[in-house]
Amino acid sequence: SQNEFEIHAEKIMTNIDSVQLTITNLLQWANSQIKGVSINNAHTDVIKVIQLANNLLHETAQSKNIKIIKHMPESAIAYCDPHLLEFIIRNLLSNAIKFSKLNDKIDIEVTNKNPNFLEISIIDYGKGIEKEKIKDLFTADIKSTIGTRKEKGTGLGLMLCKEFITLMDGEIGCESECGVKTRFWLILKLN
């Protein structure tokens, strides 16, 4: 029936998005292991990078009726590799969607931390992360966690995010309160 088709199509789309992100992560990881990571830092409009990542994940967010609310200026320039930054934002946003409940919201905030740094925060109001697990989030020791709609992952994404942001001379971190919210943040240099 039409109703069954819509239900199954939504599930298939979520699975395809999950598989695509997993394959991207695995390919990026394999490439970094074989060739090393090539860093091409440049003055980058992070707002455009965030919009690109958001556009790529729009359907996934829509499948859970999640509203992504952006609190950011029209333009914000940081000194980073735009391709690696897009990979990081896409992973963090994908995780925020994965661990959000139906009809939730996700906030993306971009602020000048001080005259030398820019901060990007991705905040979800889903499952949250237990405090004892936060210290292992960016290491190979972390196990993949199932999302709110049984979404799966490899656990590689955050490890790669940490590796890439470090190579760009930036920082990444997380703070979370179970069942309330999780905030991942990135700090990037302006010059």
Strand content: 15-25%
Structural class: alpha+beta
Cα-based radius of gyration, to the nearest Å: 16 Å
Overall 3D shape: globular
- Helix amount: 40-55%
Your description of this structure?
This protein has 191 residues and is an alpha+beta fold. Helices cover 44% and strands 25% of the residues. The chain has six helices and seven strands; from the N terminus they run αβααββαββααββ. It has helices spanning 2-35, 46-56, 58-63, 82-98, 131-134, 156-167, and strands at residues 42-45, 67-71, 77-80, 105-114, 117-124, 171-177, 181-189. The strands form two sheets. The protein has a five-stranded mixed sheet with strand order 2-4-5-7-6. A two-stranded antiparallel sheet has the order 1-3. The longest helix has 34 residues, at 2-35. The termini are far apart. The mean pLDDT is 85.
In a nutshell, what does this entry contain?
The protein is an alpha+beta fold and 191 residues long. It has six helices and seven strands; from the N terminus they run αβααββαββααββ.
